[in-house]
Design a protein that fits this description.
The chain is of the alpha+beta class. The chain has one domain. The protein is built from 3 helices and 5 strands; from the N terminus they run H-E-E-E-E-E-H-H. The protein has a 5-stranded antiparallel β-sheet. It is globular.
Amino acid sequence: MKYNWDDFTKEDYEKTIKAAKEMETSGYDDYFGRVRCGQLCIEVMVYYFGGRKNTIFVDGYVPYREGYGYKTLEDETEIPYDMFEVFETNNLDLTYEEFKELFEKETNKIIENANLTKEANAELFIW
């Protein structure tokens, strides 16, 4: 499986982690970016839940499967997609490289367990 990190830069990661740490007591929600793997789109966000540390959530989306929603492509074609949970961590001290390593390890496990290997190994699809 090959990951495309073009929409998830080190600068974006570090800026958001810094803000999340500074606002930990008041809560901070932000979207980091997305990582692509074949047809899969995997988004990284940070959320605050009352009484809990800010947490990084990683959720994935697979096109052409009914379930979660619909996406309109540039050519006006509407495609269904479904969501799958990948992992979460409240370790805001991870470097970008450490996070990428954790991300790929955990995402690979979910892709295999959720039978998404075909989609992950497909040609890169930006949707």
